[in-house]
Write a structure and sequence with these properties.
- This protein is of the alpha+beta class.
- It folds into two domains: 71 residues; 162 residues, Bira Bifunctional Protein, Domain 2 (BirA Bifunctional Protein, domain 2, 2-Layer Sandwich), CATH 3.30.930.
- It has eleven helices and eleven strands.
- Strands 1, 5, 6, 7, 8, 9, 10 and 11 form an eight-stranded mixed sheet that branches. Strands 2-4-3 form a three-stranded antiparallel sheet.
- Strand 7 and strand 8 form a beta hairpin.
- The radius of gyration is 40 Å and the shape is rod-shaped.
């Protein structure tokens, strides 16, 4: 094999390579495992021939490295000159998150009552039995006091079962008039199913002033229901019992889906149960030192998850807590 002729031929091929692919072909042809040079190196039997062939190999490797650097630099120059980015073009907007459905409904409720002049109060999630039961007129035998129904931390401390304790604290702090709502998480020892969860959200309202009547309660709740479910909603009250209100009633709103004709959402009654309400029991005024002959008031409580279920036909309340983006992104 003529080593000098092979080197001249390889140097010419390397110099004439105009792309990295062509340079790669030249590398394989002249320095690859099956190239003439590699075969000759394997057959070397004397020192002089070996030194000559190794010198050719080194020259070719250096030439390949030099030419590769030249081609890469040329490619970079071409890219910088031709692949121009118009920075004035609009970019791809990154995905944005949004408020959870429960938070959306909470803010809607807050906006409604702020418009009515109510105060928003954040209560304590850890409460004493005094504020959670005693001051709300729960008798000692009431089932809600049982450890089977409530989540106690010790003998007289528990996770609040409703947001009503904040109403007692506000009544202790100030004299009437009082117009307030309290929203937040509450806790009960419930087994999770389609309509129950151990943690859920409530909004409870309280109005105390001179001359408050049942008509004021009905008008307030009707205003709220129409804001949440539509301007054509009707309302009715059914008698009930709650320890802290007398008389006590459960408000129903006319079904927003079937307009009263009857459907699966309203259980074919035309009405949807929303929560509890009533006139504040005068015995509660005794806990805070109000004169029940001078003042009267009403209170109500609604579940935010229930509002979400009814307004959006959510079949299972647990979906609101699973954080499944396929569900959350729908709202």
């Amino acid at each position: 094999m003529d080593a000098r002729a092979l080197e001249n031929e390889a140097q010419s091929a390397i110099a004439n390579a105009s792309t990295l692919d062509e340079l790669g072909d030249a590398r394989v042809r002249y320095l690859g495992r099956k190239s003439e040079l590699k075969q000759a190196l394997r057959a070397v039997r004397d020192r002089e021939t070996g030194m000559t062939l190794n010198a050719v190999r080194e020259h070719l490797e250096a030439a390949l490295a030099t030419r590769q650097a030249e081609l890469e630099r040329a490619e970079l120059d071409r890219s910088l000159s031709e692949d121009v980015v118009d920075v004035t073009l609009p970019g791809d907007a990154p995905p944005r998150g949004h408020l959870h459905l429960i938070t959306q409904i909470r803010r809607e409720v807050e906006d409604v009552f702020l418009g009515l002049g109510y105060r928003i109060v954040d209560g304590r999630e850890v409460e004493s039995t005094h504020y959670n039961f005693d001051a709300l007129n729960f008798p000692h035998w009431h089932p809600a006091r049982s450890r089977r129904a409530s989540l106690f931390l010790n003998g007289d401390t528990l996770l609040r079962t409703e947001t009503s304790p904040s109403q007692i604290r506000v009544m202790e702090e100030q004299e009437p008039p009082i117009y307030m709502i309290s929203l937040g998480r509450v806790y009960r020892r419930d087994t999770p199913d389609a309509t129950h969860n151990p943690i859920f959200h409530q909004v409870e309202g309280l109005a105390i002033d001179k001359g408050i009547t049942l008509a004021d309660l009905k008008g307030t709740l009707l205003h709220l229901m129409r804001a949440l479910f539509g301007e054509e909603r009707g309302m009715r009250f059914r008698t009930h019992f709650f320890p802290f209100t007398e008389p006590s009633m459960e408000p129903d709103v006319s079904c927003f889906l079937c307009e009263g004709a009857g459907c699966r959402v309203c259980k074919f009654s035309g009405w949807i149960e929303m929560g509890g309400s009533g006139m504040v029991d005068p015995s509660l005024f005794e806990f805070v030192g109000y004169d029940y002959e001078e003042y009267s008031g009403f209170a109500f409580g609604l579940g935010l998850e229930r509002i979400a279920q009814l307004r959006h036909s959510v079949p299972d309340v647990r979906l609101l807590w699973d954080n499944d983006l396929r569900f959350v992104r729908q709202f």
